[in-house]
UniProtKB/TrEMBL annotation:
Alphabetical keyword list: Metal-binding, Nucleus, Repeat, Transcription, Transcription regulation, Zinc, Zinc-finger
GO molecular function ontology, one term from the record: DNA-binding transcription factor activity
Major localization listed first in the record, in broad terms: nucleus
Lineage: Eukaryota, Metazoa, Chordata, Tunicata, Ascidiacea
Pfam families, alphabetized: TFIIIA_zf-C2H2 (PF22110), zf-C2H2 (PF00096)
Protein name: Zinc finger protein
SMART domains (alphabetical): ZnF_C2H2 (SM00355)
GO BP terms: regulation of transcription by RNA polymerase II
Domain C2H2-type residue range list: 18-46, 49-76, 77-107, 115-144, 145-169, 197-224, 226-254, 255-284
Organism of origin: Ciona intestinalis (Transparent sea squirt)
């Protein structure tokens, strides 16, 4: 059978593979085994390849060189296939795009490696080795992934990895502290390494880097504006412009209130949920918000104070 042929080819291929002496993982290339061993089986305190830009330390020079590209703002990995000129910050991201969008270096399904179950009368096969090990539980009733620190065993690889972090703790990449839980690490980063996305031009700060990036268009000499051809309204955000056109000019509203006697239709699901509150027996209207001098997030991003623009001029 096809699966029997796969078992023979898999056995032949195993002889050519490079096996990790610590965890028995196998790699086709010696270089990949070296990188794996450096990252997974060496003490982080012994890592000596340090980035001069951010201070991060790595297990191998090759990994460090790959990381340094993230600091090079001019570096762009460009897809050269056909007319596609999509740009990516790393070669790994470009390789993923080439596989998913263009099918490059991605073998057809019938030629992809299969991991077949070696139990007689079982023709199950899998694309990943850890899925085959997970399947073995059906025959042995023994969870196939043991913890390297204690006697616990797990059905899936992800559960094993998550559990082992309890023994190792969660290390902060920006300092030497080690937290016992993920939530404590998140709290530590939020308080000790709070990232401030601040505009160098006007001093405004934002929670998200994407908001700062959008805001920086305010200070640029050339600013892209999307103008509606129907009513001449302008938008600095393409998504907002598209939603305006669909809702106002095409009247695309698909969220309808199902309450008896109410036929209101809304463009957004969130608007419908807010509206449905008025049909509840214990509904109490929220007090109207009073205007204040604090800029809204939208105003800070776009550079236009919508609230003050609505206020009448003072003589």
């Amino acid at each position: 059978s096809t699966c029997d042929e796969e078992k023979i080819s898999n056995a032949e291929q195993k002889k050519k593979m490079h096996t990790c002496s610590a965890c028995s993982k196998q790699y086709k290339k010696q270089r990949h085994l070296r990188l794996h061993f450096a990252r997974k089986h060496t003490n982080k305190d012994d890592w000596s390849h340090k980035c001069t830009e951010c201070g991060k330390v790595f297990a191998d020079q090759e990994i460090l060189q790959r990381h340094k590209l993230s600091h090079d703002k001019t570096y762009k990995a460009v897809c050269q296939i056909g007319d596609c000129r999509k740009e990516y910050k790393s070669t790994s991201a470009l390789s993923k795009h080439r596989q998913q969008a263009h099918g490059i270096n991605k073998p057809p399904k019938e030629n992809r490696k299969k991991y077949c179950c070696e139990v007689s009368d079982c023709d199950a096969n899998f694309s990943k080795h850890h899925l085959l090990k997970q399947h073995s539980y059906q025959h042995t009733a023994v969870p196939p992934f043991p913890c390297s620190k204690c006697d616990k065993r797990f059905l899936t690889l992800s559960h094993k990895v998550r559990h082992e972090k309890i023994h190792n703790g969660y290390s902060c990449k920006m300092c030497s502290i080690n937290c016992s839980t993920w939530s404590l690490l998140r709290r530590h980063i939020a308080t000790e390494h709070k990232e401030v996305n601040k505009c160098d031009e006007c001093g405004l700060s934002f929670k998200q880097p994407s908001q700062l990036k959008q805001h920086l268009q305010v200070h640029s000499e050339k600013r892209q504006v999307f103008k509606c051809t129907k009513c001449e309204k302008t938008y600095v955000n393409k998504y907002n412009f598209k939603m305006h056109f669909k809702i106002v000019h095409l009247n695309e509203k698909k969220f309808q209130c199902t309450h008896t006697g109410c036929n209101k239709i809304f463009a957004y699901k969130k608007s419908l949920k807010t509206h449905e509150l008025i049909h509840q027996e214990d509904y109490v209207p929220l007090p109207k918000k009073t205007r204040c001098d604090k800029l809204s997030c939208l105003s800070r991003i776009t550079g236009f104070n919508h609230e003050k623009a609505l206020l009448p001029e003072v003589a």
